[in-house]
Amino acid sequence: MEDQWLKSLITKTPQEGFELAITLSRKGVRYTQPDPEVLKKLRPEYANDPEKLTAASHVIAVNFQTIAAANNYWK
Amino acid sequence: MEDQWLKSLITKTPQEGFELAITLSRKGVRYTQPDPEVLKKLRPEYANDPEKLTAASHVIAVNFQTIAAANNYWK
Amino acid sequence: MEDQWLKSLITKTPQEGFELAITLSRKGVRYTQPDPEVLKKLRPEYANDPEKLTAASHVIAVNFQTIAAANNYWK
Amino acid sequence: MEDQWLKSLITKTPQEGFELAITLSRKGVRYTQPDPEVLKKLRPEYANDPEKLTAASHVIAVNFQTIAAANNYWK
Amino acid sequence: MEDQWLKSLITKTPQEGFELAITLSRKGVRYTQPDPEVLKKLRPEYANDPEKLTAASHVIAVNFQTIAAANNYWK
Amino acid sequence: MEDQWLKSLITKTPQEGFELAITLSRKGVRYTQPDPEVLKKLRPEYANDPEKLTAASHVIAVNFQTIAAANNYWK
């Protein structure tokens, strides 16, 4: 269904790891709602509601836990 | 009650692991609401609401933690 | 208060582990609302609401993390 | 402020561990609302709402992760 | 911005660890809303709503996971 | 898209680790809503709602888990 988009959890820096966590979080949404037009339409509702923004940050935090562990915390 | 659908948490690639996380997340719903007709009817309500899409992505993130650990982060 | 219902976290297969995660999630509800009549009455409201179904799947995912770790991911 | 109520995370069985997770979850509430009269009054509202029951089960699941790890999963 | 309030995650007992988890949870709120007058005004709304009390207990549970791991579960 | 803002998860003290967890939580919001004017406008709504404050504290707690593990709990 999907092209290859996730080859590895390893990143060079913690910041790239955080950005990969954002990608995973968005992919979790896109697998459920694959239509880019719908997603674009939902965006303003989404990006202007503090509750939804916090919820987005929460999902990123969970994915960042996974990626940080995969990278042995870049130590 | 259910056929065998989960034989292993091991996947060849991180992306297949992510897709297995999606399967687990959906199975968690289906064990609670097994009627496919009901699930189909609920889908539009679900896939057009940013809050619910983020919640779905959150569950996937939790299941992906489990699968990534099982695969030793594909290292 | 309760009979013995949880003897071990060890299961033969990942799928049985997932089903045990469902049991734990339901038990968490039943310890708070032990009346089976009330629970039966709440069920339709519960099983037809995408938000509540996702929340149920989330709790299962958290319990599955515990059970998967207990079983060393069935490796 | 509080008497000693938590001496150890170690339990004899997984089920006692699950019941300790329930105790921790309730204590988390009681530290925020210590008045038993208020808590009793809130209980019916709480125990008859599927969303709140699932949220309670979620907190129990998180505390059970901690207790299960403390007990090395009773292996 | 803040005085030193967190010197160590190590506590003598699990109960002190749980109480430190409560402190961390409250600090997470105070960094976002530092005005004590506002916080005092919000308290009644907060402490009389079962949903919000469960949410508070959830945050405590997450912080307690961290502290329990830091203390090697007081074993 | 973003300047370098996250060089390391290592901090000198637990408190600096907690403050880094706050930074990560806010960055998770800012990647979704990068417009500082919008964020400023949303702030009062955010900082005066107990539910949203608890949700913010929850995200901080998840990020603090990651940072505390990265620092081996400052032991």
From TrEMBL, chains A, B, C, D, E, F:
InterPro entries: Hexamer_Tyr-coord_heme_pr_HTHP, HTHP_sf. This is Hexameric tyrosine-coordinated heme protein.
